[in-house]
Design a protein that fits this description.
By secondary structure, the protein is an alpha/beta fold. The protein has helices spanning about 20-30, 50-60, 85-90, 105-110, 115-125, 155-170, 185-195, 195-205, 235-240; strands at about 40, 65-70, 95, 140-145, 175-180, 225, 230. The strands form two sheets. It has a five-stranded parallel beta sheet. A two-stranded antiparallel sheet has the order 6-7.
């Protein structure tokens, strides 16, 4: 339901791919094998898929942790008014994208009016206990730079986010995750069109730190696409680089 300029999966309202029930059935069967600890569901707007709630319930019934990668605006759309309650009742961790604490920057990156809808989504989650100490309901936010730059230090930016959102809206959250935009998909195309692709690749290469490799998500994650094919991370899925068996 959004078309963000930084989106490496090129998601948007005009995309038609949908995971079908048969593929969801295979995933649910895999969740029962005892080989999985967490079901991490992303999209764009994964909640729009008809199998979303069935996948969440199956994971919860098998004692798995569940993460919903939520864009916040979906929480107020027609037909999804009870979505926040559904997530809270099952203790689903919400990892919500809010690429800045400033309205102008968010609307520039995600579309006009998205910031206000996102704040409304955060307020709804807070009312249910999300992000509040002792509630057990985790609400993490994700920061993306607006352009071909690296994110600032995570701890410092988290403090700024928490201060700004608390003072302006009374919004609280658990922690902030900073993410460097990957130059593939829509974001890669934007860089190419502006002649910034090569320079951004050089920036990423120059910022590489080998000590971070032990925490790279592909070491413990299998990414399943809408057709059921397996990859070792979401980014390699977008690059059509499947897992080696």
């Amino acid at each position: 339901n959004q078309s963000c300029t930084h989106c490496h999966v090129s998601a948007g309202p005009n995309r038609t791919e949908q995971m079908e029930a048969e593929t969801a059935d295979e995933i649910i069967a895999f969740l029962t094998t005892g080989r999985v600890e967490t079901l991490d569901i992303t999209g764009g707007a994964p909640e729009m898929n008809i199998n979303f709630r069935r996948l969440v319930d199956a994971a919860c019934e098998n004692g798995l942790s569940v993460i919903d990668r939520c864009n916040l605006t979906i929480l107020s759309q027609t037909g999804y008014e009870d979505l926040a309650e559904f997530l809270a009742e099952r203790g689903v961790t919400v990892v919500a994208s809010l690429p800045c604490y400033l309205e102008e920057n968010v609307d520039q990156q995600r579309g006009k009016g998205v910031y206000r809808e996102s704040i409304a989504g955060l307020e709804k989650l807070n009312r249910l206990g999300y992000g509040k100490p002792g509630s057990g309901l985790i609400l993490d936010l994700v920061y993306n730079p607006l352009g071909p730059v690296l994110p600032p230090p995570q701890d410092e930016l988290e403090a700024t986010y928490k201060d700004a959102l608390k003072k302006r809206y009374g919004v609280v959250f658990s922690r902030l995750l900073t993410l460097a935009n990957l130059p593939v998909g829509r974001f890669g195309s934007v860089l190419q069109s502006k002649g910034q692709f090569v320079d951004y690749i050089a920036l990423l290469r120059g910022a590489h730190q080998k000590e971070n490799l032990t925490a790279v998500m592909c070491r413990g994650l299998v990414s399943i696409d809408w057709q059921g094919f397996a990859y070792d991370c979401d980014f390699n899925q977008m690059l059509s680089l499947p897992m080696s068996y």
